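Consider the tokenized backbone below.
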């Protein structure tokens, strides 16, 4: 089959192109295998009966055979005016899937085109590579966020229609489970710190701001944690102008102690040990961080830490999957669709049914890690202001200060959201029990799936 030329509306990143890849693979293969908690293929599979995808209207793709007994896909669009029925051969879809499997790992920008596939997409009545979520407004059967809706038949003959989120490891960057926002910034009181200490925190490791050193946040936080004069005390998360903490509120719906647990989880990323010096070896791996929490048991009155901390973090991960965000007010109701469809780095497509049982939550728990957004300009600004206030610029020479000013000017020209506003010490009266508290905000709560081996 000869594919056609590129057009502007077929452009996207690797994750968006992976949604098209999943559509083609499901229709081409006619079945999908279930993955286990270790992201390995099991022997359990479901037969694909149809796939639903929404752009301006919902398009239905039914697997069938034509009059010559050849496998085809019937494409049905129901709009207000009429029903459109079209037909595409399975071998064309298989060829398209093979092409995307080869091309997606090589995509490097946010708006990639793949000219060779576009005539097939036009034939399949696909007008955009990014589909809209099919919601309960479209059909009460569909609940929760989904990238694709699939009707399947299991090995016992039961038919199920459910929406799935697609997570792709075929592209260069693994997918995220939870994205940072201003509201996910965790606030810690640096108990014992003075105003002058605050200034010195902000000019310490200044070379790392200018790209001449390493460590940055890690060095600064570890020095605070290793100093016996200071203690990092969790105070919750970012507050809005009315003093409300939206992320804290949402977390408390899953458990009153969950905000404290998630704040400690972020500290353990920097090697934190309660009452001890930091570990030399740090980790981003959520399961490793929880193991260290179990050893220290940092939350008061926890009687069975070996069971408690994994259970609480798994519950948090499932709630994130089921609709909780840092910013939007959550009602505590888990809007659960069918689960995940994962595209592995070797192109295999597996599904994971969404259940609040240990298999699915262990799959999340074992396969994610924490990361941070890049810093915004305020970290640079805080360092510059500190150097101006301290005698002799806090030991920072004029050349370095000039370089910092240049970096600050560059940063201010970039689009920096408030989620990047973290990493420097500041004084605040926002906490009545701690007047003039010297605090530091961290935002290491972005949760991304680990890169998988083929």
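A designed sequence for it:
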């Amino acid at each position: 089959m000869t594919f056609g030329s590129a057009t502007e509306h077929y452009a996207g990143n690797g994750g968006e192109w992976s949604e098209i890849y999943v559509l083609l693979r499901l229709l081409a293969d006619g079945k999908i295998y279930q993955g286990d908690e270790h992201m390995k293929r099991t022997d359990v599979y479901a037969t694909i009966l149809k796939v639903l995808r929404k752009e301006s209207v919902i398009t239905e793709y039914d697997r069938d055979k034509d009059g010559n007994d050849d496998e085809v896909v019937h494409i049905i669009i129901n709009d207000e005016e009429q029903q459109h029925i079209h037909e595409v051969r399975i071998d064309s879809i298989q060829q398209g899937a093979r092409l995307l499997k080869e091309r997606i790992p090589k995509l490097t920008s946010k708006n990639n085109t793949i000219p060779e596939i576009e005539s097939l997409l036009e034939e399949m009545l696909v007008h955009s590579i990014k589909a809209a979520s099919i919601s309960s407004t479209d059909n009460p059967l569909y609940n929760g966020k989904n990238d694709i809706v699939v009707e399947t038949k299991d090995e016992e003959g039961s038919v199920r229609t459910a929406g799935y989120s697609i997570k792709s490891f075929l592209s260069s960057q693994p997918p995220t489970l939870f994205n940072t926002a201003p509201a996910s910034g965790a606030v810690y009181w640096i108990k014992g710190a003075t105003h002058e200490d605050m200034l010195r925190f902000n000019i310490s490791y200044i070379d790392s701001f200018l790209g001449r050193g390493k460590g940055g946040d890690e060095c600064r936080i570890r020095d605070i944690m290793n100093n016996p004069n200071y203690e990092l005390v969790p105070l919750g998360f970012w507050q809005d102008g009315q003093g409300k903490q939206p992320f804290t509120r949402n977390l408390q719906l899953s458990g009153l102690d969950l905000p404290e647990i998630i704040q400690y989880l972020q500290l353990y990323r920097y090697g934190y040990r309660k009452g001890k010096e930091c570990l030399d070896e740090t980790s981003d791996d959520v399961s490793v961080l929880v193991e260290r929490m179990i050893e220290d048991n940092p939350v008061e009155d926890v009687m069975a830490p070996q069971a408690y901390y994994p259970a609480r973090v798994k519950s948090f991960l499932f709630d994130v999957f089921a609709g909780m965000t840092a910013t939007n007010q959550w009602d505590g109701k888990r809007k659960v669709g069918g689960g995940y469809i994962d595209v592995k780095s070797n192109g295999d497509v597996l599904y994971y049914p969404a259940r609040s049982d240990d298999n699915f939550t262990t799959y999340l728990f074992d396969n994610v890690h924490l990361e941070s957004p890049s810093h915004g300009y305020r970290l640079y600004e805080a360092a510059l202001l500190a150097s101006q206030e301290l005698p002799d610029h806090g030991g920072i020479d004029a050349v370095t200060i000039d370089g910092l000013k240049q970096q600050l000017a560059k940063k201010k020209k970039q689009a920096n959201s408030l989620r990047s506003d973290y990493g420097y010490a500041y004084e605040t009266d926002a906490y009545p029990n701690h007047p003039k508290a010297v605090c530091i905000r961290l935002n290491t709560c972005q949760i991304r799936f680990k890169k998988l081996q083929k």
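Confidence is low (pLDDT under 50) at residues 1-6.
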